Amino acid sequence: MEFPKENFSEWYNEVIEKAGLVDKRYPVKGMHVWLPYGWQLMRNIDEFFRKIFTEHKHKEVYFPLLIPETEFKKEAEHIAGFENEVYWVTHGGLDPLDVKLVVRPTSETAMYPMFSLWIRSHADLPLRIFQIVNVFRYETKQTRTFIRVREVHFFESHTAHATAEESEEQIRDNIEIWESIAKKLALPYLLVRKTDWDKFPGAAYSIGAETIMPSGRTLQIATIHQYFQNFSKPYDIKYLKEDGTHDYVHQTTFGMSERLVGAIVGIHGDDRGIVIPPEIAPIQIVIVPIVTKNKEGVLEEARKIEKELLKYFRVHLDDRDNYTPGYKFYYWELKGVPIRLEIGPKDIEKNQVILARRDTFEKIAVSRDEYIEGISSLLKDIQENLMERAEKEMGSKIKEAENIEDIKSHNGVSMVHWCGSEECGHKIEDLTEKKIIGTPLDEHSPGKCIICGKETEIIAYVAKPY
Amino acid sequence: MEFPKENFSEWYNEVIEKAGLVDKRYPVKGMHVWLPYGWQLMRNIDEFFRKIFTEHKHKEVYFPLLIPETEFKKEAEHIAGFENEVYWVTHGGLDPLDVKLVVRPTSETAMYPMFSLWIRSHADLPLRIFQIVNVFRYETKQTRTFIRVREVHFFESHTAHATAEESEEQIRDNIEIWESIAKKLALPYLLVRKTDWDKFPGAAYSIGAETIMPSGRTLQIATIHQYFQNFSKPYDIKYLKEDGTHDYVHQTTFGMSERLVGAIVGIHGDDRGIVIPPEIAPIQIVIVPIVTKNKEGVLEEARKIEKELLKYFRVHLDDRDNYTPGYKFYYWELKGVPIRLEIGPKDIEKNQVILARRDTFEKIAVSRDEYIEGISSLLKDIQENLMERAEKEMGSKIKEAENIEDIKSHNGVSMVHWCGSEECGHKIEDLTEKKIIGTPLDEHSPGKCIICGKETEIIAYVAKPY
Known about the structure:
The structure is a homodimer.
Chain A: H1 8-18, E1 22-23, E2 33-34, H2 36-55, E3 59-60, E4 66-68, H3 69-72, H4 76-82, E5 87-92, E6 95-103, H5 108-118, E7 127-136, E8 151-161, H6 164-185, E9 190-193, E10 205-212, E11 218-228, E12 238-240, E13 246-248, E14 250-257, H7 259-268, E15 285-289, H8 295-310, E16 315-317, H9 325-334, E17 339-343, H10 345-349, E18 352-357, E19 363-367, H11 371-395, E20 398-400, H12 404-409, E21 413-417, H13 422-432, E22 435-440, E23 447-448, E24 455-456, E25 459-463
Parallel strand pairs in A: 3-7, 15-16, 15-17, 20-21
Antiparallel strand pairs in A: 1-2, 4-6, 5-6, 7-8, 8-14, 9-10, 9-22, 10-11, 11-14, 12-13, 17-18, 18-19, 21-25, 22-25, 23-24
């Protein structure tokens, strides 16, 4: 690695490339090629999405990529929020299309015309679906791998409910799902309600999960939106109630993206490369044979170990014989494999293996008689340590601020009292040249608005977001 | 079902909708919504692709959807073959793009500029990658679900090799992979070399796997292409040889699509609905409790059975209590679940379950003491029976033809001798109003060209393709 993590921006770019997650040289700005190792990591995360959303009664579907302009334009706030950043398909072959098509930036306007056909009566509710797709945003800001790209690997769930109460219950369930995901990925976060001027176009309100990157800037890694009837009215999604009358459904959505990979890279990585939480690591254990003398004997033992471990873990045996063990250590540290297992002639004699932790670099010798259990508990330890370490690191970046100068000078998230008015909110943002990333969902405390001095219970998190 | 399978076209449209595979009412022609049941079927097929291609040393990647016009246009035959049917992205937000973007119709032109960066020396070869994505074709012909659509769920593998011999070896390996896939899906096929005027744009030659639908029309369900150096030259994909000189790589590809689902629907289905081969069925066994008296006792037993079976199979318990067993039989037959397991009070007494086969409608009673084994072997039987039945059916649709009239009057594939010349080939096609779908890979026999009378060993398959 050329750059230490201290130089976060340069380090981030370098580590992504060297760890073999993506190749950024694809000749369209903001679009990259997912390489096998990076794609496997993303797919492991996707598989967890599938598992947990299925447990929470969602079904997986796939909606078309292209959305007719006519459907796209039905909800006014939504289209206004997106029209500067959608890609337009205007021609099929050599002919102009009768109706232009939007390359989906998110799928409300693709899905909801179908919802209005699917939902007839209360028996059809709740409806809960999700899809894992790519979405497209013509970003005008500077692009950054995983964090701000033009083709985004995206998860979106959409639900429809009979009543506002039930849709609120879904929001709570979504928060619970998010907690499991964050734990799986070992990502700490702040849960915030977005300001009105920063909510999702068309939403009644939006909840963001915000993490703090080592640079002190916040990164929104999940969003949960309450639509109530904002979309069901323009898209005419009505159902027959038990009392014989009709009503519009209440809707919610939940979105996440490849930003999660960006957060993992940024938060857990170190000067030697990325560090992947064991739960989602493409390779949990890499076996490096320490071959000096007795080459065949050691390799044979390594293959035996690989076979034993493959029953329980995601394992890779690095048996390349044109590289030294030292090079392999460097190579797999860069790629963030949680445990390196070393096996050499001396270890065979002693009936042991050496386990090296990627998170702390600690090395321990474990007897072959109980090494499966040893590895199992070590993987759990690493997962927990990554989470704790990240939480501590994030906590250190959150500070209470007394005045505008405190906010400006703090490289992280500042907590200030805010009366909640849009006027004071914009003033905070203008004076600090930062953003209110949101207000905490459960935390309140008495204080005075930093701008107008009015008594308030509302706290605002102020930071520079990505 | 309104239509019997005899009325194939109408039956096909009806069964897809009623079985809940897709919803065709999406407001863009030729694009449909994949519903949970259909999507799970497609995803099971995808998972098998992943498994077998990984076993055959391919790695999964993801390339961007959008391809710059400049890259797209590098290989002349390729662009000529596609330019009438690609979707063009011309605008980002409100601005026209500097370089127009093609929505991928297939990924050669996205991948190969990167290959030229990745491949440096013989040590980088062979390169074998695949991706599972959607591709887009602006079809001008009539669209038909799964068979001819504008957004296609697609599998594509791409390989690069040092020599022509090694790329030929890859073609043989691809054929072996295809055989496993066809077996998994219980699909019979003819393996053919496409005519020169029908090969893939840019390929040196193309091999097609063609199945015959009940309508007698052929459906190309997989294609394997040999490019040799046709792409590596325009895309400048060179490698350093051991002797110190440089050479262009030799490339192959392998493509399959959601057409496989269309073939499964068409070939295995019957008057009661679709029939899904057990190996890829979203649900292999549906449990229908026969509830008359002792409702709770039967349901409890059904739940116990579900729990036992879930350890080994993909199982669903239909415990809806607002539907009769008769309705549930009808419902799950329509959806093609291979085995229905019935459990009622009498069965509980007798310590047995009833298994009903979807393929033959046969019902058998199996003792609870050995029902796991019973189900296991029954699933195998059904898989094999579907394959055999389909092979027999397909065989009956292939006939030798002596003259043009024979071909015209035969509703299926006609085998005729052909000298191999493009002139006679076009004449066969024009006179019969059918197509030469290809020539068999391994079969030869002496005979005379049906057009010019010249002695030849070449056989042509002539049929009406979808």
